[in-house]
Task: inverse folding
């Protein structure tokens, strides 16, 4: 185990900043000996949140920043202009080796752009993909890429598959993870041009366990560990997961309110149901790494609670302990 | 009302053929004075199913065919070689004006290829899209294209939007239907190259009510009537709808079985819940028209029951009564 893993945390990003972010940082340092956090944000606001908790004062420090990148801002411009924002300052800490990783629940666009422009890619990585974990009936699968690189090429998808495999094997502990490409049929000749080009390349990849095509219908079954797709498609998958889930839960609630009989039943099933459905909520697995950077950038869901922030910070520690970037560099050689 | 609408029905296609298909045809002719059906398939098998029902014998005829296209067969080859299959014979009936429309629950690929190759496009239609109705919290939306034309171009998507509008307005009775393009953000500058090219064209389209981008997360809310996307993305949306729905329902069932208390509750909510969830099942709206052909080809879900087959046949009648193809021709002028 490494003695000290330093995670920069954007205390100003997301719907619940800074309260839940700060609380998540405290939970994380209290959960493990080697996790240290630097909270970036308004010193006063962050300090008054921190004052609520008990933790080893040596393990959390605060770095004052004066700007915040808002969700609506054009990302490239925001990264360029807001040098003293919590996000940009945190990315520079990673870039300069003062932190191992950064976690942010802020603007997705700014996180993606900042990751590529400030933190920078590992030499040889063509495009760093954003790779969230999505819930399935058997656990979780890694969806790669879910929004970083639209209009990707076949060679990019092959790298996504290989880096995704390393991540699932070493961060999530899945032995010999099964890799599939999202397709509109399972036969090898099916697909659009990108998939047709990528399929044989994946098939010939010696270092992954490629199992073929997966139709979107089968993704929730969880038979596959790494799901490879182009970012536009991945984003549609991630967001539709959330959308259909939310709509169905609303339908279930409505259904339970249709008769006196069902209302009584609803009172009885509610607690059990709530717990089960939570395990199928894509937003619960908030920590999506941007894989292939010189360091680690983890984007958490905009409405992350302290629990998810803590999980994302701990995920960074595993990433560092397992030396994922070193494994990616070896893979590229 | 037109006196006579003749629908060719592929009695051999789908998981429940011929029994449910034949039953669906009987339901349809019994439900409306002007619907006539020609059932295509093995005369004996179809005849013995027909013998079970009461209906006006003048309204259903059987055309014997000796071949069946199976789901796994390469579509282009199947269409070419199996001239005496129920599907190919039915398509020729439409082509030659002996039927107004054909309904099939058989191989999607063969239906798409046959529609284009045998029935043929309306002059000026670049690509005929497959357009299923998907359930939403407010009713249904038309998803166009959901699988007919991968790697489509911007001009194709514009036609999808325009033809989809006509369909929703005149077949589904939605006044001034709202049209949106599937995107990975709602801002105009977001998207992949195809969406960026298509967006301004849709914005400048005088004959549709274009409301901008829609993220996949918001599709189930039903705020939009016509959802435009490229076929690969559309297919992912349609199938993930089914997949997430099925997985969540399994989770709900599991959740209800976790304690004695919740088991009792489950017994009470079950009937109400079943009904409500059924209304959110994409496979319940099985009739997807292939729009823009010289005639009408409707693909129903592979496991369609008689109810869905009947609904698809009735949908053909509305399509003909509303003279959708004439409206598409006017649109193209």
Result:
């Amino acid at each position: 185990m490494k003695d000290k893993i330093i995670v920069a945390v954007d205390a100003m990003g997301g719907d619940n900043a800074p309260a839940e972010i700060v609380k998540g940082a405290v939970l994380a340092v209290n959960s493990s000996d080697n996790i240290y956090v630097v909270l970036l944000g308004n010193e006063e606001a962050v300090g008054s949140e921190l004052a609520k908790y008990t933790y080893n004062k040596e393990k959390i420090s605060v770095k004052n920043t004066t700007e915040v990148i808002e969700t609506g801002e054009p990302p490239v411009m925001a990264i360029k202009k807001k040098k003293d924002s919590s996000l940009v300052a945190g990315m520079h800490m990673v870039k300069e080796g003062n932190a191992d990783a950064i976690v942010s629940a802020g603007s997705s666009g700014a996180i993606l752009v900042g990751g590529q422009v400030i933190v920078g890619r590992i030499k040889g990585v063509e495009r760093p993909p954003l790779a969230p974990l999505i819930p399935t009936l058997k656990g979780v699968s890694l969806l790669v890429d879910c929004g970083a690189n639209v209009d990707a090429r076949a060679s990019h998808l092959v790298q996504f598959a290989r880096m995704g495999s390393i991540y699932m094997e070493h961060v999530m502990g899945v032995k010999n993870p099964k890799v599939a490409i999202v397709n509109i049929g399972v036969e090898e000749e099916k697909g659009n041009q990108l998939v047709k080009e990528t399929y044989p390349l994946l098939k010939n990849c010696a270092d992954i366990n490629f199992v073929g095509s997966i139709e979107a219908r089968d993704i929730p079954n969880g038979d596959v560990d790494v799901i490879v797709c182009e970012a536009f498609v991945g984003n549609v998958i991630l967001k539709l997961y959330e959308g259909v889930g939310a709509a169905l839960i609303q339908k279930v609630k409505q259904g339970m309110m249709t008769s006196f009989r069902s209302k009584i039943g609803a009172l009885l099933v509610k607690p059990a149901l709530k717990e089960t459905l939570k395990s199928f909520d894509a937003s619960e697995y908030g920590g999506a790494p941007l894989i292939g950077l010189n360091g680690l950038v983890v984007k958490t869901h905009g409405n992350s609670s302290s629990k998810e922030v803590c999980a994302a910070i701990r995920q960074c520690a595993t990433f560092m302990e397992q030396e994922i970037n070193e494994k990616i560099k070896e893979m590229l050689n």
